[in-house]
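Need tokens for this chain, all 445 residues.
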Amino acid sequence: MSTRRKLSKILTIAGNTLRLIFRGGAGIGTLFILILVGIFIFSAAKADEVLINEIRLRFRYSLYFSTTILSMATLWFSCVTVRKDIDGKQMHALVSFPISRVQIWIGKWLGIFTFASIALFCCILTSGLCALVFTMNWENKTEITEMLKSINPVYSICQPEGRSVEIKVDIAYSKLKATGKLPPNETETQIRKNLFLKFRREEQLLPAGTGRTWEFNLKKRPQGKSISFRYKFYTQRRKKLAGKWIVETPGKIERYEVKFNKYPYRIHTAEIPVSMIPKNNFTVSFIPITKKDIIFPGEEGLRVYYKTGTILGNATMMFFLFLLHLGTVVALGLTFGTVFTFSVATFVSLIFYFLGMGSSFFENIANNTMNSEEGTLHFFSNLFLCIGVWLTKGISPSPVIGPFSENLSVSAGLQSWLPELILYFLVVAIIGMIFLSRKELDRLH
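Here are the structure tokens for all 445 residues:
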């Protein structure tokens, strides 16, 4: 059978699946609900009455709630579609034609995925139109002008290079264990916690009169004429702190200095010319003038913001990255619908969905529970926790809505979660195809 005929059969099944979703009114009803939810949440949310903050918060909540419902609806459609075809004997009739079951599975997946793509576009369009209407009705025209200038450049964030605190804890714990110097009256969790607090304090605290140098490595070449170096610090007293920042590039004699005299507990910004960093890697050194103990908090103490794109390109990237999540949800629903009965498949789908929504919670529990003790029991307990975390993370929503609403590049962090998502999709899809291929569907009665 030629590739064109195979593709034609897959597209025919996909088209029939999509028509069936809309024929009964479920598709139109779902789109209507998603639009209403987006409008309602955008209208109900409220920030601090500053236009840019209002738009960001309302857009984020509106799109987050509507896409959450979309993910749940997509999982339900996927599960119900294949299960009804099996229970109603339509699948039995379909496999009697000269078409492989793998093609049937791919066609079903493509049809539901097309509906999910249309629904996602409606969600993004609804939130975007709400933001446009809200901006047009805003009374302060100066804020409108400032907001329009600030939303178009998309920024990427660069944090200081170096070993994370968690890695330092692992190395220190391994050394203590190898030398037999582990505290005898403390559990592994307590030891690791104490080491974490110790290293975190060393990383953030600068004793009075001491400076420090941090290394930065930009992932992309910045656009524009400057990059923004944002810093925040804490001191014991709320008085101004004087100092200077020195920006240097390896191999370049010239350096750039920025003097400051700022209050603590606030975010401050220093513009660094792009011409000062011909390469993407550079160092920033802090030289204190006022002699005080200083803390640069790890969460937002030192960050470099640099322009890397436009809002249109960022919106397109968000759309396609979230589609990857929905494609995985469709595959999972089809697999559940194939393996289990209708009631069991629906129940398991809902359980997996809610577990995926709380994947970060379970990941934190697993990290606090797992230990490095030797032995078969500890090995299997850690393996069980790792599998559980992997199962919940695979269906969790793509982390793109928050960064997009803050004008940050949604492609940041792709290296960490995108490979896991693709692997999860492939595993689930292969399992679904195998079960459908081996299912007894030859008898119509």
